[in-house]
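Severity: low
Component: inverse-folding endpoint
Summary: output formatting inconsistent between runs
Steps to reproduce: submit the following structure tokens with default settings.
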């Protein structure tokens, strides 16, 4: 049996095989291969003669209740089934049971492993290179929101309290800074702190909108970055949104802001050329979203769109910076300083969005008016 991939740096650890055996009999497993580029959970593709499935170790420092996550997956799966034959083209991974009929496998070291279905004949994109791909991403996100528009948000557990509530992240950063000293911190950290300071007043914008009742509580995906959109290999259409652990009650604006943040930055989150917010991709993505979201996306929703686009990269930058100053305990890093670099790139994206505010608002209006 193969436990790993052609890349020797990416081997599946023996624990992954042990966990895989909780879900499938040994002689059926051909390989366990690391999958994806997630920063939180560990993900593997288990290959069997009959097909593939996905095995994940949930990060206990982020997700405290695997039970809540699995409950949510089951609620989503049955909601989807109730819509049979389902909305055109959108599939979601479904939870699988252990051989003993449990929802997850608890290893001897107390780590929690779960299995979900693999979306066949699909691939993810590292970068968006064509507007048609962006349109597909927007359409998939709109389909996802539409799919759960008739499911009451209270039906899902809050798997990650405070997730995407930006003022909480700013507070956490302020606490960390107040604790001082900021060991080894360079001029870049101070620059980043100044950048954030100049934008403090905008941080609560979506939470205020929620409190005022402008923005309705809905079921959100929570992490609709490009990596989490799967495209059909043959047709190129977006067929699935994966990584459903953060699906929970929230705001659709978190999803939209996060999706633009990820897709409209074509030079990437981690490293590469200077970051700019690509308006052509933005327009195609929002066009795809509006194509399917008109029924539930209101005028007031539109009024908050620019704020969401600007806030989500600022929020992620704050989260990366806080983690950098706190020993990289949350986001996986390959080398020290990587979370600072990631934060700086999010702030470059914010600056690019701000520089293009007028054009962005004009596109939003034009597309909304159709
Ligand atoms: C994390 O683990 P991953 O890569 O799916 C994070 C997202 C960030 C993203 C940035 C639960 O997602 O919020 O946008 O990194 N997920 C969580 O790449 O914090
Ligand atoms: Mg995720």
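Observed output (run 2 of 3):
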């Amino acid at each position: 049996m193969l436990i790993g991939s052609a890349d020797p740096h990416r081997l599946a650890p023996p624990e992954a095989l042990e966990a895989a055996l909780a879900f499938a009999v040994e002689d059926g497993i051909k390989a366990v291969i690391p999958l994806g580029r997630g920063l939180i959970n560990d993900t593997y593709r288990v290959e069997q003669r009959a097909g593939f499935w996905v095995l994940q170790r949930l990060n206990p420092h982020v997700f405290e209740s695997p039970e809540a996550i699995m409950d949510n997956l089951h609620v989503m799966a049955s909601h989807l089934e109730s819509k049979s034959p389902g909305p055109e083209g959108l599939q979601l991974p479904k939870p699988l049971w252990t051989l003993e009929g449990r929802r997850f496998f608890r290893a001897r070291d107390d780590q929690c492993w779960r299995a979900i279905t693999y979306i066949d004949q699909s691939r993810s994109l590292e970068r968006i290179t064509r507007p048609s791909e962006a349109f597909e991403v927007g359409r998939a996100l709109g389909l996802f929101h539409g799919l759960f528009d008739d499911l009451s948000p209270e039906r899902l557990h809050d798997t990650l309290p405070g997730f995407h509530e930006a003022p909480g992240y700013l507070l956490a950063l302020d606490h960390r800074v107040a604790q001082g000293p900021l060991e080894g911190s360079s001029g870049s950290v101070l620059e980043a702190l100044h950048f954030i300071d100049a934008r403090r007043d905008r941080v609560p914008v979506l939470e205020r909108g929620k409190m005022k009742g402008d923005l309705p509580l809905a079921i959100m995906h929570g992490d609709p970055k490009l990596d989490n959109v799967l495209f059909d290999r043959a047709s190129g259409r977006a067929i699935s949104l994966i990584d459903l652990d953060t699906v929970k009650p929230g705001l659709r604006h978190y999803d939209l802001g996060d999706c633009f943040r990820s897709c409209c930055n074509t030079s990437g989150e981690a490293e590469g050329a200077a970051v700019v917010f690509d308006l052509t991709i933005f327009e195609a993505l929002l066009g795809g979203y509006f194509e399917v979201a008109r029924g539930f996306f209101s005028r007031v929703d539109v009024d908050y769109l620019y704020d969401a686009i600007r806030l989500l990269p600022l929020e992620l930058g704050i989260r990366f910076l806080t983690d950098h100053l706190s020993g990289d305990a949350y986001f996986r890093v390959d080398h020290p300083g990587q979370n600072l670099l990631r934060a700086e790139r999010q702030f470059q994206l914010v600056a690019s969005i701000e520089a293009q505010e007028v054009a962005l608002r004009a596109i939003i209006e034009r597309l909304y008016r159709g």
